[in-house]
Design brief:
InterPro entries: ATP-dep_Glu-Cys_Ligase-2, CP_ATPgrasp, DUF403. The protein folds into two domains: about 375 residues, no CATH class; about 220 residues, no CATH class. A hairpin with an 8-residue loop joins β14 and β15. By secondary structure, it is of the alpha+beta class. It is about 45% helix and about 15% strand. Strands 4, 5, 12, 17, 18, 19, 20 and 21 form an eight-stranded mixed beta sheet that branches. Strands 6, 7, 8, 9, 10 and 11 form a six-stranded mixed beta sheet that branches. It has a four-stranded antiparallel beta sheet with strand order 13-16-14-15.
């Protein structure tokens, strides 16, 4: 009964596929890929046909996953302390110490709370006979929870009546489980999500989970270690003690003092603070020693050794070339097995022997003989196909799918009632990783007949966490984010006012000639020799490679906004995302000589964004950072276009009002620099009175400007309409 109702609901979602994808797009649900050395944001392909798992079946999975992760945590604690499992001959020591994920730098360290793998991503497949098999344990920085978490919220709104009628376990408690695990191990201080940067492939997830858990999103330059304690630096240089770091960068790059000395994305000294017990790191450094593909072979023995239990979940039948008997088996059956390079991840280094010709098979066999520790071989599991909607034909097409289940360990171990189901992009292909072109589905865990299960009052606690996530105050704004807020205000205003001023001039050209457009170009210091006027206009509006274009202003607004998701919320950032989509659409219309009026959508997006910020629970000081930038830009543009003092009165009053919000507080140097530059320009434009008024603001700022340098802003704040402008 329950399953059939769920399948009816799934069919309804198929009919709403375009609407769901549109919502994913406008909310920036992306992951990044690097191609030919360049970073590209792409939407994570979503398929509306969910994986449906019956309640009793998932209960058994839950038991097995808890058992497995508890054993892996016990193993990590053991090999970095007593090493009993080695001394007792269960796991050969060469497999421990030769693992690329084993770090002697953390030997003897027991992390806060005694937990190593706070978040485990367990990759499973379901065989055609219905049995579940574990393919991999991911205990370092498993990603992907944000995608089913986000899409479920959209699905519920797309078909609210149907979701009321179908008993599916609620998946919204993941942020609560994550934050509870972080709080359980925290030493003293705030919680941060440490991201390596905007151009990391999983940056959306970093920012989204920071938003949902109420943690501060930190870049490496935002943290420093003093006296073996970790501190978060705000924009004024004040330190805030950090108690737990949910790190989203690999061990090798975490601390240049302890690991890779060439790392520029790590936090120098953080490992010393961790070793001293002054900060918790989620997940713990050194966890790679337990999710090495070769160590996977020994997990069933770990379960028996540490827990005294028989494994509930199946390991894929695995062969270890370092064992002579296994090596002979692998070499004799190369064409039947899948060979995995233990040093690779993300679907790379996986070779199906059946796909190789004789020469390639021989070459791989020689590599296995030379480096047997580097490889494992597994029986090919014929796992179950699940239908996806072919994006080209709209027809159902069977694809291979795996399931990444998330297990969160704090005071207790919990299995999230959801998971990331990934599907292959090509029918019959067995590699499903997103980096290999795969997409994702939601995972519906059916509730028992008694009703929907909510763990420990999850609904109320998640709401509390969401409220907490909106209470980011100015005290947790870093120097770089202060700059982002300011430039977000400037670039949104630049796109809005430039477009509003553009159309009256453009209309005059239709009635007279291109000379009517020269005052507009002159005001913005743009070229005035219109040899190809239509080409000039097209470039000014739509050319993303032209730093003077409206499209560049929208892109710059987006680049500053996307970093501010925890502070401003996904709901508000969607308007900047929409502006990006609309400027792209407008460019397509223009290329076909169609509706130039499509530009109206971009100005509407900006109005919606500003209105949303003004009426949101965002901290008033954060609003002030945005609107000071906005009104400085408006005054600059209005005076360029020669508007009257009466028209300037409103933005001047707004600037004064928002400046008063920050009365007595330190101000980032970008504010004072922008104001100083504008004061210098106004007399030559004939606005001495405005210059004198702004000079008073500038004098008031003196002595309150933060001297903390912006360490790594890259090009985010240097994309300006011309070199003369701030």
């Amino acid at each position: 009964m329950i399953e059939s109702a769920a399948r009816r609901l799934a069919h309804e979602l198929v009919n709403r596929r375009e609407a769901i994808n549109r919502e994913l797009s406008r909310n920036g649900v992306r992951f990044g890929i690097y191609k030919n050395g360049e970073y590209h944001d792409r939407l994570f392909p979503y398929d509306p046909v969910p994986r449906i798992i019956e309640s009793d079946e998932y209960d058994e999975l839950e038991k097995g996953l808890k058992q497995r992760v508890n054993a892996l945590n016990a193993y990590l604690k053991d090999i970095y302390s007593d090493k009993a499992i080695i001394h007792d001959g269960v796991v050969p020591e060469e497999y421990v110490y030769t693992s690329a994920g084993y770090f002697p730098q953390v030997n003897g360290v027991t992390p806060p709370g005694g937990i190593f793998a706070h978040i485990a991503g367990e990759d499973l497949v379901q065989g055609e006979d219905g049995r579940w098999w574990v393919l991999e344990d991911n205990l370092r920085i498993p990603s992907g929870a944000s995608y089913p978490l986000f899409v479920r919220d959209i699905e519920r709104r797309i078909s609210p009546r149907l979701f009321r009628d179908v008993r599916i376990r609620d998946n919204r408690e993941y942020p609560r489980l994550l934050r509870k695990a972080m709080d359980f191990v925290s030493t003293e201080g705030i919680a941060v999500v440490l991201t390596p940067g905007r151009y990391n492939s999983a940056f959306f997830e970093h920012a989204y989970l920071a938003e949902k858990t109420g943690a501060a999103l930190a870049f490496p330059e935002d943290l420093e270690v003093v006296d073996n304690k970790v501190y978060f630096l705000d924009y004024a240089g004040k330190r805030h003690r950090v108690g737990v770091v949910y790190r989203r960068l690999s061990d090798e790059f975490l601390d240049p003092f302890a690991f890779n000395p060439d790392s520029v994305i790590g936090v120098p000294g953080i490992l010393s603070a961790y070793r001293a017990g002054n900060v918790a790191i989620v997940n713990a450094p050194g966890n790679g020693a337990a999710d090495d593909k070769a160590v996977y072979y020994f997990v069933p023995q770990m379960i028996k050794y540490y827990l005294g239990e028989e494994p509930i979940l199946n390991n894929a039948p695995t062969y270890m070339p370092m064992f002579e008997a296994d090596r002979k088996e692998v070499l004799n059956r190369m064409g039947e097995l899948v060979i995995k390079d233990v040093a690779e991840a993300g679907g790379y280094g996986v070779v199906f022997g059946s796909s190789l010709d004789a020469a390639a098979r021989e070459e791989l066999a020689n590599r296995i003989k030379e480096e047997p520790r580097r490889f494992i071989a597994q029986e090919v599991i014929q796992f179950r196909d699940i239908d996806v909607v072919d994006p080209k034909t709209g027809e159902m097409s069977p694809r291979k799918c795996d399931l990444r289940a998330f297990v969160v360990t704090g005071k207790n171990t919990h299995v999230w009632y959801s998971g990331l189901t990934r599907y292959s992009s090509v029918p019959g292909q067995m590699i499903v990783n997103s980096s290999q072109g795969g997409g994702f589905k939601d995972t519906w865990v059916l509730a028992p007949e008694s009703g929907v299960e909510h763990e420990y009052g999850a609904e109320t606690q998640v709401v509390n966490l969401l409220n907490q996530s909106r209470r980011h105050s100015l005290s947790l704004v870093t120097a770089s984010k202060a700059d982002n807020l300011y430039w977000l205000g400037r670039y949104t205003e630049r796109a809005f006012t430039t477009l509003n001023q553009f159309f009256p001039f453009y209309d005059r050209v239709m009635d007279t000639d291109v000379d009517a457009f020269r005052p507009f170009a002159h005001a913005l210091d743009l070229p005035e020799d219109f040899e190809d006027f239509d080409g000039f206009v097209n470039s000014f509006l739509y050319d993303g490679s032209n730093p003077d274009s409206v499209r560049s202003a929208v892109t710059s607004a987006f680049n500053n906004a996307v970093i501010l998701r925890p502070e401003l919320s996904s709901r508000l950032l969607q308007y900047v995302e929409l502006a990006m989509t609309n400027i792209t659409d407008a460019a397509k219309y223009a290329a076909d000589a169609e509706d130039i009026y499509k530009q109206r959508d971009i100005t509407d997006d900006m109005l919606a964004f500003w209105g949303g910020i003004e009426n949101s629970p965002v901290d008033p000081t954060l609003k002030a950072f945005i609107f000071i930038g906005k009104y400085l830009e408006r005054i600059d543009l209005y005076t360029r276009f020669g508007l009257t003092m009466e028209e300037l009165e409103a933005p001047l009053k707004k600037l004064a009002a928002y400046s008063m919000t920050l009365d007595g507080m330190p101000l980032p140097s970008c504010f004072a620099d922008g104001l100083s530059w504008l004061v210098g320009q106004l007399p030559s434009r004939g606005y001495q009175e405005v210059a004198d008024l702004l000079k008073k603001y500038l004098d008031d700022y003196s002595g309150r400007v933060s001297a903390l340098a912006i360490k790594d802003m890259g090009s985010l704040s240097s994309m300006n309409m011309d070199a003369k402008r701030p």
